[in-house]
Amino acid sequence: MNQRDIAVVSVSGGLDSCVTAAIANLKYDIALLHVNYGQRTERRELQAFNDIADFYGVEKRLVIDFRHLAEIGNSSLTDYSMEVSKADLENEEIPSSYVPFRNANILTAAGSWAETLNAKAIFIGAVFEDSSGYPDCRPDFFKAFEYAMDLGTKPETKIKIETPIIHMTKSEIIKKGIELGAPLHLTWSCYQNEDESCGVCDSCALRLRGFQQLGIEDPIPYKVRPNYLK
Q: How many whole angstroms separate alpha carbon 215 and alpha carbon 230?
């Protein structure tokens, strides 16, 4: 059996990154990267990351502490004086949950590790559907970052940034995950709870609506499951 190239996959523990890891695993020997940054659900997300890594039998895993993102603040995910906004799926403004330039921070760590591992790609589960709220989810951002990474690494280092689900809707991502046998039951998406998902934050709402559009019950626990198809 031929040895496969290595890809670093950023895995938050959420649904999108889990499906992204499943896609990367089709072609690459995956190395999984997780970032703790003082978010409200840090412990639960780390558990989900390790559960996903265990599911795929991944030995190469790296957990990084980016506590500076919490110290910088200005996000309801890290600043407890700010309220996590209730779901508004029609909102086109930047939500309070935006962590300033988080994906760039993640990609710098992934790039360093990828160069060390001689990896050929970095996978990240960004979704363009979220880009109206999160500017660091735009395709142009990843294209520009790949160019910057090419300039800032050794001449022989060639790493492609892969965003395989960036143009998918949440329901399409869920469907792809089911097709690939991804462990969606091990993932965690809630912005504010670590025991039962709240069901009312933006992340829960997007996830629940995706499952509801497919007529499938989300396998993780919720305190409430509003109907987001109305």
A: 14
User: Quick one: pLDDT at residue 1?
Assistant: 45
CATH architecture, domain 6-214: 3-Layer(aba) Sandwich (3.40)
Measured on CA atoms in the order 129, 217, 229, 94, is the torsion positive or negative? Answer: negative
- pTM exceeding 0.90: yes
The mean pLDDT values, 10 residues at a time, for the chain of 230 residues are 88 98 98 95 97 98 95 82 74 74 95 98 89 79 97 97 96 98 98 96 94 98 95
List of residues 6+ apart from 5 with CB closer than 8 A = 27, 28, 29, 119, 120, 121
3-state secondary structure the chain: CCCCCEEEEECCCCHHHHHHHHHHHCCCEEEEEEEECCCCCHHHHHHHHHHHHHHCCCCCEEEEECCHHHHHCCCCCCCCCCCCCECCCCCCCCCCCCCCCHHHHHHHHHHHHHHHHCCCEEECCCCHHHCCCCHHHCHHHHHHHHHHHHHHCCCCCCCEEECCCCCCCHHHHHHHHHHCCCCHHHCCCCCCCCCCECCCEHHHHHHHHHHHHHCCCCCCCECCCCCCCC
